[in-house]
Amino acid sequence: MFVPPDKDCSQCSRLVEFRKENIAKFPSYYNGPVPSFGSIEAEVVVVGLAPGLNGANQTARPFTNDYAGDVLYPALKKFGFAKGEYQKRKDDGFELINVRVTNSVRCVPPQNKVTGDEVRVCGKYLIEELADMKNLKVVLTLGSVAHNAVLAVLGYKKSAFKFGHGSVHVLDKHNIVMLNSYHTSRYNINTGVLTFDMFDDIMKKLLSFV
After folding, report:
1. Which fold does the domain 32-208 belong to in CATH?
2. pLDDT by residue for the chain (210 residues), tens digit each?
3. How would DSSP label each residue in 62-97?
4. In terms of pTM, does the model score above 0.90?
5. For the chain, what are the domain ranges?
6. C-beta separation of 29 from 52 below 8 A
7. Distance between CA atoms of 145 and 177, rounded to whole angstroms?
């Protein structure tokens, strides 16, 4: 059974030290492992990298008040995976439909960069969460870190499933599909690595599997 990490989880020393700094700088922020958003009964899970310092780390909801969420959540609504108005707050009433959103690492990392050890340690929560999603059909990974994290916790060789935007991987042992997308980060949008049209195409693919 999936049990999320405690608010004061102490397993990753670097992240704990960063949390302490942020508690001092931003005492009104959540400053802890960010809970997943959406029903455990959903058929789709979106896996990102980690909370943003002034985004999910502040609001306690994945991708919320973060530029990446400004791209992700309106797209989910556009394609029928959400309802309500996304207003960048946990209490905005925005609801997900048949989709759950989480991250590979649940605490905000310095410079938005996680280490392999942090992904591995947090992987125990990801595998429990995926195992509890009894209706799961599709995992949408935003970026290569999430892609590799999912493969690792499910026991697949990374070399057999190369990350690529729009790539679809059939994970036979678990009877699920993994769909890759570039991360919806501000950097990727500003540099043209990912466009809104490209992400719409990912949403269309996602719809075809549920």
Report:
1. Uracil-DNA Glycosylase, subunit E (3.40.470)
2. 889 999 999 999 999 999 999 999 999 999 999 999 999 999 999 999 999 999 999 999 999 999 999 999 999 999 999 999 999 999 999 999 999 999 999 999 999 999 999 999 999 999 999 999 999 999 999 999 999 999 999 999 999 999 999 999 999 999 999 999 999 999 999 999 999 999 999 999 999 999
3. TTTTSHHHHHHHHHHHHTTSEES---SSTTS--EES
4. yes
5. 32-208
6. no
7. 17
